[in-house]
Amino acid sequence: MSLDIRFRQDFPDFTLDVDLSLPGQGVSALFGPSGCGKSTLLRCIAGLNPTPGGRCVVNGAVWQDGAHSLPTHRRPLGYVFQEPTLFAHLSVQANLDYGRRRAGDAGQRVARERAIDLLGIGHLLQRRTDGLSGGERQRIAIARALLTGPQLLLMDEPMAALDLARKNELMPYLERVTRELDIPVVYVSHAPDEVARLAHHIVAMETGRVVAAGPLAEVLARVHLPIRLGEDAGVVLDGVVVERDVQWHLARIAFPGGCLWVRDGGQDKGTPVRIRILARDVSLALSPTADTSLLNSLPVVVDQIADESHPALALCRLRVGNSSSLVARLTRRSAAALRLAQGQTVWAQIKAVALIG
Ligand SMILES: Nc1ncnc2c1ncn2[C@@H]1O[C@H](COP(=O)(O)OP(=O)(O)OP(=O)(O)O)[C@@H](O)[C@H]1O
C-alpha cells in the first residue's frame, strides 16, 4: 500500500522535481516554507497541472504513468482548500448532496450519516452556508469531499484562513477524520504544531525539492535536518496512558523506552496518546538531581550533536531505550563543559511535555 509520485514541472522561475513513495494510509504532511512547492505538488497529484512523463499510483490504481493520465474528474480524490468553496446560495444539505452525486463509479466509501457525525454538522443541515463561521464552512467542505468517495484526500492548509480559536475548534474534527477513516491524506502545512498533531509521515520541501522524508518521529529527531525548525525543533512520541494521579491531575504516559508525567488530559488508562517535547524544554545533567521541581528526568544516551543556526547553540539527539529519541537544545559552552560525547549516558531533564492528542 503506497502512493508513488514522480513529477517535474518547470515554471519560468521555479522547478518542482519530486520522486516520492508515501505510505498508502495515514496522514503524510508536506511541510516547508512559503513558495517551496507544496500546493504545486498537490495540484500535480490532482491532475490540475500538466506534467507529461509524471507518475502517480495510488494504492495500486494508476492515475498517471507516461502517456496515460486520468483527468482530474476521473481521479477519485477529495480536495480541501484553504478557503472552502461551497455554494453560498444553497443549504448545507444541498452542498453535501452535490458531493454525493459526484461519488459516481468510485463508490460511496463514507456513509452520509458517518460524515455528518464525524464533522459534527447534523444541526447545520438546513442552514445556508454563507451564514456559517469559517470553521463550520470548512467542516462542510471536508464532509462534502468525503461523500465523493475519495481514495485519497488532499488538504491544502485547511486551517490557514482561520483565527486561533477557530483552528482549535476545527482540529479535533480533523483528527477524527484522519484517524477514524481508512483514507490516506496528503496534508499541506507550514505550521509545525499542526504537523506534530496530525501527521504520521512528513515530507520536508525546499525550493521545489524534497529535503527529508520519513516517519514523523524519526524525521523530527534528525539534528542534521536541512530545514531549520528553530523554536519548533523537537520530537513527538506516541504512547499510552498507563496511570492517572487524580489528586495532582497528572497522567503517566509510557512510550517505547520510558515514561513521562504530563498534565492529565482526561483520557482513560490504556488510551493511545501523542506527546510533543520541544528541544528548548530539554536540558542535560551528568547525574540524576534529586533537588529539582522537574517531574521528568530520563537516562538517555547521546547519539549526535549538531550545530544550530546560531553559533552559541547546539542540538543534541538523545536515545531513550532502543527505539525513541529526544532532542535537546543547549549552548555549545554547556556541551563543552559537560564534555558531551557520542555514546555517553546523561540525564535528560524535561521542563515541559505537551499532550497533543
Ligand atoms: N502557474 C504558475 N506559473 C508560474 N509560477 C507558478 C505557478 N504556480 C506556482 N508557481 C510558482 O511555484 C512556486 C511554488 O508555489 P506553491 O504555491 O506551490 O508554494 P507553496 O509551498 O504551496 O507556498 P505557500 O505555503 O505560500 O502556499 C512559487 O514560486 C510560485 O510562484
Fold blueprint:
Layout: E1 2-11, E2 14-23, E3 27-31, H1 38-46, E4 55-58, E5 61-65, E6 68-69, E7 77-80, H2 92-101, H3 112-119, H4 134-147, E8 152-156, H5 164-180, E9 185-189, H6 192-198, E10 201-206, E11 209-215, H7 216-220, E12 234-245, E13 250-255, E14 258-263, E15 272-278, E16 282-285, E17 296-307, E18 313-320, E19 324-331, H8 332-337, E20 345-350, E21 354-355
Parallel strand pairs: 3-9, 3-10, 7-8, 8-9
Antiparallel strand pairs: 1-2, 1-4, 4-5, 5-6, 10-11, 12-13, 12-15, 13-14, 15-21, 16-20, 17-18, 17-20, 18-19
Helix pairs in contact: 2-4, 3-4, 4-5
Bound molecules: adenosine-5'-triphosphate.
Descriptive report:
It is a single chain. By secondary structure, the protein is α+β, with helices and mostly antiparallel strands. The chain has two domains: 2-220, P-loop containing nucleotide triphosphate hydrolases (Rossmann fold); 234-355, Beta Barrel (OB fold (Dihydrolipoamide Acetyltransferase, E2P)). The protein contains eight helices and 21 strands. Strand 5 and strand 6 form a beta hairpin. The relative contact order is 0.12. The mean pLDDT is 92. Adenosine-5'-triphosphate is lined by residues 11, 14, 32, 34-40, 190.
